[in-house]
Write a structure and sequence with these properties.
Structural class: alpha+beta
Order of helices and strands: EEHHEEHHEEEEEEEEEEEEEEE
Largest sheet: 6 strands, mixed
Strand content: 25-35%
Number of domains: 2
Number of helices: 4
CATH superfamily of the largest domain: FhaA, phosphopeptide-binding domain (DUF3662)
Strand order of the largest sheet: 1-2-7-4-6-8
Shape: elongated
Radius of gyration: 21 Å
CATH class of the largest domain: Alpha Beta
CATH topology of the largest domain: hypothetical protein PF0899 fold
CATH architecture of the largest domain: 2-Layer Sandwich
């Protein structure tokens, strides 16, 4: 399915993607000759490429790429461009699952950029994926012939996931009144009430009232055993935060083993526990 071209580029043959629930007729007669380049195919390509990364951070953990540029024939590009919302909501969790399986970390917010191959070197049903690391949180707007898709964490959906109960694999889970939210080790999350333009690290807690700050407390899961978390009350005029019975001052951070209870503004109770 993938073939390494050089240190940072991979050729993709989407016709080799193994698809689930293949019909009997397709198995017998080969099915349609057209190759479907859809969200599923792109996810399989990203998963396959991530397994080729060998970069380690200072602690010896695999640190995979987080910047992906996929060059496609214009017809495949136009088909995926129309499905950008699906890519936005589903590719992030799919990538997160693969990173967890690899016990790896990544920098910042993963981003996938779809490009038209202006040189007409990429055939229909094929692609070239360029991979890199990018620690810059600022993501530039799309240009002509490009679609930028932020592969945000599943929790970054905010209100769209409010109340959704999920048990997706993760290193830890926040339990709130109506469900759970998975967290991944190595990433910093900021908890608070729902707000416009929250940023990829923000988690809007369902049921949070006006007494909860938009950005009240941050949580980062440590990738160690037993699991622990660094919990920080946001600096400035943030409302009270109590972690495991300990009240934090603005800007104060504490490292605590999991499970632990968080209480925001004296009214919103959250439980942080390992998966």
């Amino acid at each position: 399915m993938i073939k390494q071209l050089d240190a940072n580029r991979y050729a993709i043959d989407f016709s080799q993607v193994k698809r689930p629930n293949k019909s009997i007729l397709t198995s017998m007669f080969g099915g349609p000759k057209t190759v479907e380049v859809d969200a599923f195919a792109v996810a399989q390509a990203l998963r396959a490429v991530l397994k080729n990364c060998t970069n380690l951070d200072v602690e010896g953990r695999l640190q995979v790429w987080n910047d992906f540029r996929l060059f496609l024939d214009r017809r495949d590009y136009e088909g995926l461009r129309k499905k950008a919302p699906t890519l936005q909501h589903q590719l992030g969790p799919a990538l997160e699952d693969e990173v967890l399986k690899l016990k790896a970390t990544y920098l910042g917010t993963p981003v996938l950029r779809l490009h038209v191959d202006e040189g007409s070197e990429v055939e229909l049903g094929h692609g070239v994926l360029k991979v890199d690391w990018n620690a810059d949180e600022k993501i530039t707007a799309s240009t002509a012939g490009e679609v930028t898709v932020r592969l945000d964490k599943v929790v970054a959906g905010g209100p769209a996931l409010a109340g959704a109960k999920t048990e997706r694999a993760g290193s830890a889970v926040i339990k709130h009144a109506t469900g759970t939210i998975p967290l991944v080790a190595g990433l910093r999350y900021v908890l608070g009430r729902s707000c416009p333009s929250p940023g990829p690290e923000h988690i809007a807690i369902p049921g949070a009232t006006g007494r909860i700050n938009k950005r009240q407390v941050s949580v980062q899961i440590e990738a160690e055993k037993p699991l622990a978390a660094i919990v920080t009350r946001e600096p400035g005029e943030s409302n009270p935060v109590v972690v495991g019975g300990q009240s934090l001052a603005p800007g104060q951070a504490v490292k605590v083993p999991l499970p632990v209870e968080l209480v925001l503004s004296g009214e919103l109770k959250l439980e942080l526990y390992p998966c």
